[in-house]
Amino acid sequence: MTRRSRWSGVLLGTLLCVLGTSPLRAQAPGSAPSSANGIVTGRVTDGRSGVPLPGAQVFADNNRDRVVRTDNDGRYRLTEVQPGQRMISVRMIGYANKGAPITITAGQTATVNVALDVQPLDLDAVVVTGQGGEISKRRIATTVDVVSAEKIEASPAKRLDELLQTNLPSAQIRLTSGQPGTTSIMRTRGVTSVSNNSTPVIYVDGVRMDNLNTQAALGMNTSGNRAQGAATSAIADLPMDNIERIEFIPGGAATTLYGSDAANGVIQIFTKRGSQGGTKGFFEVRSGYDTPQTQFHFFKATRDLLYRNGFSQQYSAGIEGGNNAITYSLSGNLRASQSHRVYGDNSAFGFRNAVGANIGTKGKYQGSLSYNETDSPRFRNGNAGGYTSLWVLEAGRSSAFGFNNNIDNLTPAGADSLKTFVNNGERLQDNRVFTRAFQTSHRIDFDPFKSVKTHATFGLNNRFSRERAIVTNEFQIATRAFPVGTVDRGTISNFERNYTGFTFDVGGQHSAAIGSDLSVITSVGAQLFRNDDVQVAYTATNVRDGAQTVTGAGVTQSQDVAFRVANYGLFGQSNISYKERYTMELGLRADKNTAFGANTGAQVYPKVGLVYAIGAEEWMRSLISEDVLSDFRLRAAYGVAGQFPRPFANDRTVTINSFNGQQAATFGQPGNRFLKPERTGTLEMGADLAFFQSRATLGLGYYTARTVDALITAPPAPSTGEVSQIANVGEISNRGMELRATVTPVSNAMWRLTLNGAYNTLNNKVEKLGGTPPFPISGYGASTVQGMVQEGYPVGFLQGAKAIFNADGTIKEIQELAFLGKPTPDAFGSFGAQLGIGSRLNISASADYQFGAQAQSFDKAFRYLYGVNGTETYVPAAALAQAPYNGNRASIWQRTMNLWVENTDYVAIRTLSVDYRLPANLLPRGTKDARASFSIVNPWRWASSSFDPETDLSSATSQGAAAVGGFNYATDGNPRSFLLTLRFGF
């Protein structure tokens, strides 16, 4: 049985099993309500255009535990509504909340149609991230971004970080490699650490997920550093099916309640739980192909030698439904695609199931589980050593294999010979990454009183990844590493990482109204999480060709490492508002962590915020009409969040090594009894404005953040004989502006146009190192270019030899270890447009950009070193001719590293998409709605650099350390994708 047919059977069997379980039998979908209750039906539309609004939430009497959603025609059906005077409430992202009173008669059906008013500021949305419970955004002093189900469903993105790339205005997310499933750089409000990565904390249904914040100490060397390069990404393999919404808060004041691991922000993902009413389902087919972006290749021939159009297909299906007692949701997907390299296939399978059930009249259970697995090839890149196809072609190294390195000028016979050589190299590479992720969440809500809500959440996330590299003797011979007849140079390398995270969270929220004007929402809670990261490597040498396991190899070896950390936290927060006009937030969290030193007490993180709804003041309305200034809000907040040290860094250890077949003890790490987390305090101020009846909105923000007690590996006194030890001795500062705007210039029954944009600035600097000398965190040897940490400079700035030239082209001076640039941009942002034509056709586009960053290209340097035609002008001829270089390129290229550093400004169109909802008379039999969409991902890009400014594989994805990038070296760029999607609802 093939893998694909096995998956099909698993998915079909799972669907049939769930269809046969109690959620569907609890009440026949679509059955009539009990005679004691009534039904409410109706339609929700846009108040200006009259266009139906799918996905709006509808519920009665503010009871959001009994929510239904409108279908693609904006229609809803709310069952089991108690008789009497009721308020039907409607909420939707981007629109003002609206309520409609109605009288319900037992056993009867009432109709309520609701037209929503646009409100792009989205202040009425209810969010939970960073709040300890549900609170309206209107009362929050910090930034919260929400990605709705509609945006998720309409997006052509194939992975979650690709979706978030243009949907989080204050974050920069860069996919730094075109290889599937590799990690991305995620940066919000600067680089807060040199010892921890920049990935936000990720939650799914309240359970912490693996975000690769422990060091990948063992791994497959496909990029020159096992902890860098084409590492697998935990966020990339999270399935996108069945996501209800995503909330994101940047680090600092917004993340205080998450404590010692949240300085980079929090991404919280909420999955669908089903809804009341009859069973609803969907089936979606997505097909297309990936084609390489070749505009940054130096040689035109590279496209034909190394790449192809890789076809892809994805099948997704899901059902949801329920009644007043129980709801359910199930979805699954199968994915298969060809690599856009000449060889290699990718495959994936996943499903998610969620159930909600009432527990008496005051309780509710919500549970979910998901499983996802991926299997992808890896191709050698960068400084991996040995044969690397892209380096051989683009860096001019094909001359070492007997070919003219000006591959665009090859004769037809020479081109055929090189193609055979490269294709054999690709065909015989056998490097693959397999991941398997399981997540389950269980939450019980109990509301003993109308003003009190409590909850308890327990869940776990297990993520297993296996990297396997098989190097055959045939590969060694084909790439001319060893002569014909070699039989003892085959190797097998396996690297396994098994991460398990446990989360337990309890909390309560009390809402109190004091008179008619003052309200207080108080949240308290406790959290425990534990992360276990166990890594194992087992390798073999002198392996026969054809072997897939290490058994029978000439020599076998193994090693393992383990990281374990537990964190305990208590938090409390009070949100006090007078007339919903003057609001104050006060919060506090205290943490203990097993990575803290023995003499380090509980770490306390405070938070304070203020909100002034100045637009609600009568004197403001007397100055500016509400038709001109629809809303105006001022906010300010200060808060502290942290990042804990790596596990066991606080312990004093002895290192045991093997010596002459015996065990030998040496000094390990000296330990640090006073080790504590890095603390990032952030002050943010901002204003939110809406104009012309909310046709235009503007968000203005400024933040300044300082990380104190920054974790730095400090050298000991030479007399101790000890190794370096991590210590809290550094300070790092970040500051910047955050601007965002939305405008709807046209909105009527026929046309609706919305434009949005974001602009962010960033200034990052290392303020103190506590006497620690400058040190590298990325890059290569000191004789070339490294990413450095030094007082007074940005984290990871580029350092190397800088040549100063005279007017005649001769070298005036060589500055050793000079500043060559910085990989972090001065400004970045995104923009987009959505055009609706009638009620069925939607056209959208999204883009992002950055300015003010630099990166170094080893490909360009090597082309010069190896004498590729057209590169002789890279270094002035007069400089090459002068002593001591004497015309020898090898003697000068490392002395002129500044010539290989370029600005990496870019503007990239990320997606273009056309979506059409079919009219009823064209629907296939048995379907309630159908949509067809065509999308192009990465259709166009402008860049100031000669190389791909985003392809930053080497050092870009270092886990367990700062990930800032700055190097371009024989790395695949992200492909351009063409996708056709058909979605059917029934």
UniProtKB/TrEMBL annotation:
The keyword Transmembrane is assigned to this record: yes
TonB-dependent receptor-like beta-barrel domain location: 370-779
Superkingdom assignment: Bacteria
Single Gene Ontology BP annotation: siderophore transmembrane transport
Membrane topology field: Multi-pass membrane protein
InterPro entries registered for this protein in UniProt: Beta-barrel_TonB, Beta-barrel_TonB_sf, CarboxyPept-like_regulatory, Plug_dom, Plug_dom_sf, TonB-dep_rcpt-like
Ranges of residues in domain TonB-dependent receptor plug: 137-266
Chief site of localization: membrane
A GO cellular component annotation in the UniProt record: cell outer membrane
GO molecular function, one term: siderophore uptake transmembrane transporter activity
Span of the signal peptide: 1-26
Keyword Transmembrane: yes
PROSITE patterns per record: TONB_DEPENDENT_REC_3
Swiss-Prot/TrEMBL keywords: Cell outer membrane, Membrane, Receptor, Signal, TonB box, Transmembrane, Transmembrane beta strand, Transport
Subcellular location: Cell outer membrane
Family: Belongs to the TonB-dependent receptor family.
Protein name (record): TonB-dependent receptor
